[in-house]
Amino acid sequence: MAFLLHAQPSHSLPAADLRRSSPLIHRGPASVRFPLKCKAVDSYGGNSDDLYLLTGDTAPASALLSRTRLEDAIKNNTTRLRIFSGTANPSLAQEISCYLGLELGKIKIKRFADGEIYVQLQESVRGCDVFLVQPTCPPANENLMELLVMIDACRRASAKTITAVIPYFGYARADRKTQGRESIAAKLVANLITESGADRVLACDLHSGQSMGYFDIPVDHVYGQPVILDYLASKGISSDDLVVVSPDVGGVARARAFAKKLSDAPLAIVDKRRHGHNVAEVMNLIGDVKGKVAIMVDDMIDTAGTISKGAALLHQEGAREVYACTTHAVFSPPAISRLSSGLFQEVIITNTIPLSEQNYFPQLTVLSVANLLAETIWRVHDDCSGDIEPFSTLGID
Fold first, then answer.
1. How far is it, in rounded angstroms, from Cα 94 to Cα 21?
2. Who contacts 139 (Cβ-Cβ below 8 Å, separation ≥6)?
3. Which of 94, 149, 96 is nearest to 121 (CA)?
4. Residues in the chain with pLDDT < 70?
5. What is the pTM of this model?
């Protein structure tokens, strides 16, 4: 069955309006929220403009000039920027293209009867900067192979540069040998992407920073942290009531960076002993959470065993409320039943991985990273650095 992906043209909204119409928060069908803005001084003691990454209202003149060049190029039909989506997360790719005021490139993707993947570009990309949006989320092997075939199609179509936009990088957890005779699959996948013809990789919240070193091509590593921080700033929680919790020792650096953005909120650590893959046992808590609002921060939630056992421990230690914040919602069974069991006041995720309708539950909030990725894509295309505020967290040198 063929899968033909392209955006429907919109003639009623100019590029700037399309960007502002891109939703930042997604809920289940029963409760949809509109884009959120936080311009006031927030209750954490800092100005929320520091977190306000997603719109051009607070952007400096250099960023606005870069954006103006994009709008002029689109208006005059001279832009060499092309965005294509695989079948893994077309809704995120559509949001990215809308933010940039572009239409998704036309591409035909189908599976043969024996499962082989066929890809054909339906428009010319000769001399263009091509960005392929395809997370390698479940089914990881299918989506990874599809990405490789898409890269090969673009290379053979004489694209000037090919950037693999991988919001969620599968196999990232297999980044080292913990036992003898194990594979390092993250390095293998990096080699596959490089050898298929990609010139650059854009990834969001890799499981570990050393995974960037597995690629022999440039890697732009962006973080979903600003999106989550912007949302938390809107909730008006007093900084005196906050404590940031790392669900395991390996996530301490991530939690510390998160706590620093929340006016140096105190840090707590859950000591976890793992007895097997996807099996965790909580031992004890390092830090004080009594009477506090605990913000648990992790890069991904898979089966939710680690974070749910950690939340139970926090409640036992006297935490008033527990929030779970993560970028990648893998949600392998029985994650939904664990997360919706009442342990969490709210579970905050992003849309790097598409979420099926049956996996929504009342405590779930889904934030969009489309604007974050779109800003990064434009800076890569425009040879513009990300070291200017408010884009300093984009990770572009």
1. 12
2. none
3. 149
4. 1-71, 73-78, 274-280, 282, 385-397
5. 0.81
